[in-house]
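Example 3.
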Amino acid sequence: MNRVTLRKTIVACAVLAAALLLAIVLTSLVGSESLPVPASLCALASFGTSTCGLTQDQFDILFQIRLPRILLAAAVGGSLATAGAGYQALLRNPLAEPYLLGISNGAAVGTMIALVFFGAVEWTRPILAFSGALVATFAVYQLARGRAGATPERLILAGVIVTTFLSSVIVFVTVMMDATRIRSFTFWLLGDLSGASKTLLPVTILIAIAGALALTLHARSLNLLMLGERDAFDLGVEVGRVRILVFLVASLLVGSSVAASGSVGYVGLVVPHLARLSLGSDNRISIPAAALGGALFVIVADTVARTIIAPRELPVGAITALIGAPLFIYLLRRA
Amino acid sequence: MSLEARDLTVSYDDRIAVADVTLSLKQGEITAIIGPNGAGKSTLLRTLNGQLPRSSGAVLLDGEPIERLNRRSISRRIAVVAQEAELRFPVTVLEFVLGGRFAWATHSGWGWETERDLDVAESVIRETELTELSARLMSELSGGERQRALMARALATEAPILLLDEPTANLDLSHQATLLSLVRVRSNQNRIAALVVTHDINLASEFADYILLMKQGRTVHYGRPAEVLRPEILQDVFQIRVLVDAHPVTGGPRITPVHEPIRD
């Protein structure tokens, strides 16, 4: 593996960004309703300022349903993959992942509380989801932390404890809901991108970008942190400050994506792993690559989820778990 | 450059790990800390680096209290060679050694290694005889090779004060000699002050200009090897009979433990 340079980072990110753009365009043409390709491309190129001969229904499908959903998928994927890379550096373990550690569940509890008590006020959802993720992150960190960082066994046990505890809280809150909402709720819990909210979508996208930037700008510190807190300290990393930053940023990323789409699992595991495998462990390249790759991954997974048994839909979390669980087993065996 | 501890006391909960230790490291001098397990040697080293909080006393880096300095300015002046590296993520030897240049970066989190960073890394990799391995993953290295990489990373910081925690524990005789001569040469050229925590009393005798002998957190003796390494002192501290004679080559004190024959 060659040393990571600025040039290599820019090339990798440019390739991934181009692939992401291409995926956004192509997947917006795919769906249970088939749209005329040239006219759709023309409308997309005009950023929705011209219908290019699409009927009003087709135009609405493209711009009111598909595109917001795809953009949400990108934001959620980018957020979760970045958060995963952050947790992996923080806990010094490549198996760390927000869903498996129960942090998504923490955010889910926060979102549910917002839905039950402040149903009409949408912005309370990401805020309470962030708080829930923060509490869960803190719990996992305290439980998993040993003298030599989090060993895989400790980490997974900590994740199981936090996940199961929060699952029972989720059940408790679900029971308090009215019966008609329970089904959509179960769906949402598994990760569901169909409910892209007009007000929350820009916030989710903004948080995804800001979070990925914040962690990328601390990549050199994270590189050293991955090799042990004590060594990082010796070499000049303000360990306490970086740790708090990762805590906050990763929780914010998980909170905003869970508030928007429920718990999409394994993205934070699969994508950073692939990024490290193909580009090396240097966070200066693997974090931005994971952010872009995560966006790409969830867009593709969600397209599969909404087309494979069309007109019915699967929750996207079912697809990501289908890919992620075997990889997790593989990584666990190697650890 | 100097690093000083004055009446340093460190305690965990209610157990006192280091009590009233005074110590001074200057460029051109190598100091060894010896003593039985649990004497507080590593704790002292970690406190000198500003990592563990003190209960009382002071640590002064170039006359300034260490807690007033920011982390990166300390790391440009003090490097630590730990016993083992934690390696859960794949990194190459070169990337690992370049970690030693972190404190010199213009920004604490972002940025790229400069030509100079690469030159420094390359030269310490050569000095620690790792050139052939520099593109290999750290996890593929043997224990001794990893220890040399840890040494290379510490040297890459170009810090004038070097704190070494059992630096030779995993090394064979030839690599022990290489590693120690890296420290010795730099010290003789007045480039560094070194502190070595070790269990190997003969190594301390040969290698150090000063020895701090500790027991239960306290200084038993602090002085030249010939003053500290006397049989009655060592017997008292280690609770074992020792013979001390002159090393046939260097003439310094040579310590041989005498194991009483075990009878049933």
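Chain A has a mean pLDDT of 88. Chain A has one domain: 75-334.
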